[in-house]
């Protein structure tokens, strides 16, 4: 099952990228109190997903040798952008990263069903549901930030 | 002659369960004024807390000289509290009232005329509109204006300018109440009624020191707990308040959870209901959705787990759950201990969940009172001068927006509805960043009342933001303004307002305002006319000029919505009592309680919101909502407990929490100018537990320094009755009465220490979860200036060392031999004074 292990690895890796990026945005936009606290909270969810996945990774091995999904590895946000438009762009980047996480869980869940791996199926399904909540928050926050950022941000 | 400083709740009128609350008429007149000297009694309702007691204003020689409770009013049956009695009128003739507009010249505020002051506002407003459009404008209002003023401002902001940046200090006091209703029931609207007190078997007060915040409502409860067949009281509060004492007296429970752990406690109570089978399964199946998810969420919160998290006794938790689970009728009330604390909305929603799980809603005695902090907060929520659309409409529902566009005859795209209306914390954030360049503040004092005061002062004092302040006095906020507009206050203008249990009162103009002061309505209209706002037909917008016309326009806006005012009019409100909405063809005399059917306004096309994720605040989409097909069923929503944002550390080992005292209101604009109230609580203090005080070497009255990562205060310490680990400070004390001290030099403002963080759903700031440290500075010159009459009292063993608080001016209080008839009262027909063995519902 080389490809399933690759996708398990991708789930682990993309959750880590998302968690790191959420924390980078939290710290970089700490003046936005809700962004600071919520991004830290959501990063904790991604940590928890990885924690739950760990026994599965040990079972299947985390295979990075297969090349195709490697291209899917997205770079995280090492540093954030300034100002309201910057916040908007950073949230958009987080949304892209979280979408990668979500589709990865979808793919992993399909594999788990095929293998009748109940443990992995439960992890993938519940993690997927929480990724949806992360995406919903990002979407809600972008909608709220957009008008002011696009029209009257003094840093424009 | 009763001293109502010493006797906060006044004479008891105990009565049996199920009988009408007797009437007692309280009166206070200025020194030297006799009842027969009063030239006119002008009907109104009290504005010094959210209870909304009906009263008459005494007028003599063109001045307001006192107040008398209205015996026939459904809210108070004649009573008034200490704030209402002593504080309602002295401010009006205070020599430091604002009488003329002021503008900033060369860094100083100087008096000018209306033309000049309003001219500056209009000039700046026009310039910003031309350069950057309406998103440069923000409005921050109050819980103190009248309905007509909120609705007028809402139309100016939403249809005239088109800015989403409108909110009120209601965000600090009552936003969680509204948000929790929307999440559970689909729309705002108080389900219960004060009459539930007469019929309940148990009363749960969550983070609600009612004995101090709504003294007349507490008197109503005492009149049951001190009679035969009293309800059992359960109190959730980290302080040993009079409510906690009453809980013990009635065989109930005082649960004192660690600050910031309310949700863990609520999850524990909810789990017990499931565990013990105290669930009305059939009712839940018929009238709610989400029970399975809720059961799963609360499953880990065993009594032992909750005991460890919250620091409460597991047996006490079980006992509280048992009282809730086994009493026939339960009334719950909630206030700032939940609203201004960690996970506010989720905790307030959890109160609804408990009621829904047992079907305890919509019948006498089984009610929920999510309280408000202010007298007219409800109207800001209804009329949309805060982060809502008028009439509990859903900003996310194009048909609701179209209804408003039709009412106002404007393009629906003018009405900002592309995102949720901006909350107060975000408005100040935009002002800080420079994208809101005109901030108009009316009837509120954010320089003292908002969290992290140093930041708020910096924003208001910055050259980047043009600040307009409209108020009665030169408050700490007004001192930082670019233009100050003198406003008429209560009794100096006409309008309506609505209290916690939906009761609408008309408050008539009793006297002329001082100098050139004008009503807030006239000021807003003056701006609208000067700006030339018009509708699509070219007619003036707003289309009205008087309070009564504004009220009639609002009635039209409320038609068919849950908050229906169509059956009300000024004439109808001139009757003997306030009237609770909805008032329509079906309920021409008003509605005592909601959801008697029980059909909730959760239908996707009717609801005020599609709801949110209680943990993140993420919005539920229309499709998701429609897929759940709520169709009039209430939502059961749960959330897991998370630790507060700032926990005690080595540097800051204690938890700082703020609150009120019975004798002061808000930033003391009115109460601080009333002798009896001022002297009862003249200066700030902090309360420490005996344990912490002993460990820190602090004695009663010592001056202590309290520091958080954001600021410092130095005040006297009361060795009080907070739980160990917690430090309580009243938030009322700013700098306006400290001679010669600038706001940033003063030493006693509690919000110097609080943090900028808010609830993800209600966006209400958290005033009750900051870490702090306390150090002794020096001995004081006597006991702390904290009252001894309520929650700030020293513990019983130390009470003798502190003189009791007393010394209020004389008042009279008369228990009426015959109780008037109150419309809609479910106990109507019972005789009074009630015989002690009266059977419920029969005389």
UniProtKB/TrEMBL annotation, chain A:
Source organism, top-level taxon: Bacteria
Name under which the protein is recorded: Ferritin-like domain-containing protein
Native organism: Nocardioides abyssi
TrEMBL record, chain B:
Region: Disordered, residue numbers: 778-843
Coiled coil: none
Domain 4Fe-4S Mo/W bis-MGD-type: 39-95
Highest taxon, organism lineage: Bacteria
Keywords of this entry: 4Fe-4S, Iron, Iron-sulfur, Metal-binding
InterPro entries, sorted: Asp_de-COase-like_dom_sf, MoPterin_dinucl-bd_dom, Mopterin_OxRdtase, Mopterin_OxRdtase_4Fe-4S_dom, Prok_molybdopt-oxidoreductase
Bias kind Low complexity: ranges: 780-792
Protein name according to UniProt: Molybdopterin oxidoreductase family protein
Organism (species): Nocardioides abyssi
